[in-house]
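stage 2 :: seqdesign
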């Protein structure tokens, strides 16, 4: 009687371990090449045009003043422009133009823009994405 109880316990334990292993393996994780911070939404996990392998580079509410005042299309366009720059000076021009547009929009809505916690151009230069 003990042998059949032990055999049943082993069979149940094995089945449980297999089920748990399968559920862990089925969970979606980072996709190779997606990079960190690509965000959720259209094209998440894809390296789009102009991305040039900027894995880990984020353009979001932490470093883009007026992020919440932009539509999804404007955010995507801003990210694409920032990822397409090749030099620090070009980055600063794109960034300044975007900030000016957002400052105007904020004034129209009587909102004060928060300063970014980090400067995207400085981060891109430090990581070697631009010269």
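stage 2 :: out
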């Amino acid at each position: 009687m003990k042998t059949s109880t032990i055999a049943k316990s082993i069979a149940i334990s094995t089945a449980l371990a297999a089920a748990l292993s399968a559920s862990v393996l089925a969970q979606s994780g980072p996709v190779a090449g997606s990079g960190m911070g690509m965000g959720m939404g259209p094209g998440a996990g894809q390296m789009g045009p102009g991305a040039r392998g900027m894995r880990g580079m984020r353009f979001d509410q932490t470093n883009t003043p007026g992020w919440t005042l932009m539509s999804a299309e404007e955010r995507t366009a801003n990210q694409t422009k920032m990822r397409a720059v090749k030099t620090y000076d070009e980055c600063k021009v794109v960034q300044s133009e975007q900030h000016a547009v957002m400052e105007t929009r904020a004034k129209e809505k009587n909102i004060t823009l928060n300063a970014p916690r980090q400067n995207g151009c400085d981060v891109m230069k430090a990581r070697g994405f631009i010269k």
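stage 3 :: structure notes
- Helices lie at 2-26, 72-84, 88-108, 120-126.
- The CA atoms of residues 1 and 31 lie 50 Å apart.
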